[in-house]
FecCD family ABC transporter permease (Arthrobacter methylotrophus), 331 residues
Amino acid sequence: MPGNRAAWLLVAVVVLAVACAASLAIGARDMSIATVWQALTQFNPDDGNHAVVHTRIPRTVLGLVAGAALGLAGAAMQGVSRNPLADPGIMGVNAGAALAVVMGIYLFGISGASGYIWFAFVGAAAAAVVVYLIASMGREGATPVKLALAGAALSAGLYSVMNVLLVSSQDTLDRFRFWQVGGIAGSDWSVILAGLPFLLLGASIVLGSGRVLNSLALGDDIARGLGRNVTLARGITSLGIVTLCGAATALAGPIGFVGLVVPHAVRFFTGPDYRWILPFSMVLAPALLLASDVLGRVVLLPSEVPAGIMTAIVGAPVFVWLVRCGKGASL
């Protein structure tokens, strides 16, 4: 299977294209693919169907960039920590970013992605550092199980603090509640453009770390023997991870499990080579996010279920399976 990686990557791109088309065509008002194509190539402002398609374009683009960021961050996080349970949601990064955003709203009255993004970066980075420091305590160091437990414990504590702030301020709760569940509905181009430079920077760093992650997967001693500066390699890759997590969380809210499920799924096609795991994750993670968003639009019509809830429905059973099967040694 790994020998046909390029062909499978092309299939993954086709799957992503289908997800994009579905995102533009399906919703409370369904349209044919022909109508979608006509709206994209021969837009008529007087045609209601064309107008609906154009309102869905920013939502689809946000699903693309946020999903790609979460997929890359999850795959790289698993490689850096050598922990198959690593994910921005499980490792406390999303919780740190969410709490920082709430504090920004509560203390400074910020609003919009351009304001959220800086607080989300600080919160994501601080949570990642705290989780690693807690897990590093003791003789065995930061083992996969200790990292997962530290991340779960920190997430619970941070969300508790966040809830205290929310119940004490109705205005903060009103601004935050729709962002909290995670989703790509209601987005516009200003939101996407605010986070795009950070997403591109983080993606460039992480996509260039494939060889480094392959070395780290062999263990720190072997990586040093191959000439790697392990501390520097982890630091640079972690910078890319935090940049991706912070930007994606600021734009779309704390969407969980995308970065956990997709990297494990793509290993069936790629094997353990991160030079292929990363691009596959970058393509298939937005396909999963967009498919979840489309499903959320139609499952409870005329209401919508946010994409963050739909990805949790898919990802939670996978997480339980990984824990029960003890996959910690597979990386």
The CA atoms of residues 81 and 304 lie 36 Å apart. The first helix runs from residue 5 to 25.
